[in-house]
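User: I'm new to structure prediction. If I give you an amino acid sequence, what do you actually give back? Let's try with this one:
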Amino acid sequence: MEKIKLVQVMNAVDSLRKLSVSELPLKLSYKLSKITQACQVEIDFYEDKRLELAEKYGTLNDDKTSYNVVPEKAEEVQKLLIELGDLEIQNDIPSLELSLDLDLKLTPNDVALLEPFITFI
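Assistant: Good question. You get back a string of structure tokens that encode the predicted 3D arrangement of the chain. For your 121 residues, that looks like this:
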């Protein structure tokens, strides 16, 4: 498997969720669950770092549910988030081969976002 950036995992989340609710043969379901578990570790890491940035460069809003980044720091925060997304992750995410003959409903965008994790054969 090629090197994967953190942003690729983040971008594939919805497509992985869509695929994970499909009925698949047991072996494929098992392998897909391993991919989603490994991706969840990376997603949690990203969200933790994003929250740290929000706490450092923002202020908690009145209802205490989210942070508002100080306007003069917004560009810096955006650069840091891009750097975070560009991190190459440890390649512990298993790969999966899915047959194009399976009766799955995925958009072309889903397929493109899933390609770092799934080989469509």
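You can read the tokens as a compact description of the fold. Here is one thing that stands out. The CA atoms of residues 41 and 93 lie 10 Å apart.
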